[in-house]
Design goal:
The chain is α/β, with parallel strands linked by helices. It is about 50% helix and about 10% strand. Helix 7 links the parallel strand 4 and strand 5. The termini are far apart. Helix 2 packs antiparallel against helix 4.
């Protein structure tokens, strides 16, 4: 009888404490990236969406390979969450309650341990076989070059060399780098997980402006623009609030932006 009474008291105590613990840790800023990482790692729907995107890309490459062109053609692709999977980084920082840190990010990329996004290796190998040059345009920094190349080469990505890896000099706007490639090549396709990977019109825009630009360019998606899913991070988040907010401030803004009933 005493044992049963003790168990009952422990269960009652746990039930009383649970709401407080849940309330204290409920945060868009903390739990969002963790949920996103879990979805990316474990949801078959994520894999299906990636395969669907790369299947559409392969179909377009097949059609274009039979068309005449006056200039050599290139495919410009992002790296993170487009060809390489960084969900372990997002999971670790989110579960520890820490925001993005460039130092921690570089510690992660230095490991060259990223897995691939489903469908990415086979698509880019296929595109290269069809005569397309691949450029990897990323906002990783110059000091991440060696590890990034090692990671790409580990999985056999074509054109994984210094010439075709275009890193950031600190400017996250990819348009100037795309324009340099366009001097030599017809950019036949762009692949990415963030709208800034496709056109300058999306760079540092408000959510409503980004949405309007998508409507204007709707014919490009699935044709010249191939989008991969990423719910862990991206310009869609930073478009919601100014940079430099505390976690509590960011969480407060997110709560005002989400629709409920």
């Amino acid at each position: 009888m005493q044992t049963r009474y003790l168990v009952w008291l422990l269960l009652a105590f746990a039930a009383c404490k649970t709401p407080q613990r849940t309330t204290a840790t409920t945060s868009f800023a903390n739990t969002g990236p963790a949920w996103g990482a879990l979805w990316q790692q474990r949801a078959a729907e994520y894999k299906a969406l990636c395969l669907q995107a790369y299947h559409a890309a392969a179909q377009r490459v097949e059609v274009m390979s039979h068309q005449q062109t006056l200039r050599p053609r290139a495919i410009v692709t992002d790296i993170d969450e487009t060809v390489l999977d960084n969900s372990p980084y997002s999971a670790k920082t989110a579960l520890a309650g820490r925001p993005y840190s460039q130092k921690e990010w570089e510690e992660w990329t230095a490991l060259a341990a990223c897995d691939t996004v489903p469908g990415a290796p086979s698509f880019f190998k296929y595109a290269a076989e069809k005569g397309f040059t691949i450029y990897y345009v990323t906002n990783r920094l110059e000091n991440e070059r060696a590890a990034t190349l090692k990671n790409l080469q580990r999985w056999g990505f074509p054109f994984a060399d210094n010439e075709h890896l275009v890193l950031s000099n600190g400017n996250s706007n990819k348009e100037p780098r795309r324009l340099e490639i366009a001097k030599k090549f017809e950019i036949a396709m762009l692949v990415g997980d963030n709208l800034g990977d496709f056109a300058a019109v999306f760079y540092h825009r408000l959510p409503e402006e980004r949405s309007a630009a998508v409507d204007e360019l709707r014919a490009e998606f699935g044709e010249r623009f191939i989008v991969l899913p990423n719910v862990m991070y991206g310009d869609w988040v930073t478009a919601l609030y100014p940079r430099g907010l505390t976690e509590a401030q960011a969480d407060s803004v997110m709560r005002t932006q989400v629709k409920s009933f």
